[in-house]
Amino acid sequence: MYALITDGSIAKYLRGNRGITIGDIQYPRDIFSKWTEAERNAIGIFEVIQNNAKKKDEAYYINTDQTFTYDADAGTVTATYGDATAKAHADTLYTQDDVDEDVYPEGHAQAGERKSTFAKDDVKIEGLKTIRIRTVKSQAANILAETDWYIVRKADANTAIPSAITTYRAAVRTKCAAMETAITNASNTPAIETLYTYVNTADEGDPVVMERPLGEFPVLGS
Question: What sign results for the dihedral spanned by CA atoms 154, 160, 164, 166?
Answer without folding.
Answer: positive
